[in-house]
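Late entry, evening session. Most of the bench is empty. Finally got around to the prediction I had been postponing all week. Sequence below, unchanged from the version circulated by S.P.
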Amino acid sequence: VQLQASGGGLMQPGGSLKLSCKASGIIFSIYAMGWYRQVPGKQCELVASITSSDRADYGDSVSGRVTISRDNAKKTIYLQMNSLEADDTAVYYCNARPPSGTGDYWGQGTQVTVSS
């Protein structure tokens, strides 16, 4: 199983970013997918998740600024984040959760740095 994330980098405060995560080795359409982020010394937190039936949930710290979407044909999820803040600086990880709810897969992470 591979979860290949892309789209991170250095971003301007107030700007936008779009992260992508392409999955392989799983039956993508039946998996719930998500984005988490982690700052050194802090707990990993949910950014957004999307179920196999396209129901989305968002973390409290980003609610209203992010949109998660999925393209089952491309086996890819996307995270659109607007109005970037310095506190959005983190490593963002792609997550795949099987229907059983256990045995998650994780991507390698992509660094997002918000700074002027």
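Two things to note before I forget:
The mean pLDDT is 96.
The longest strand covers residues 17-24.
Will write this up properly tomorrow.
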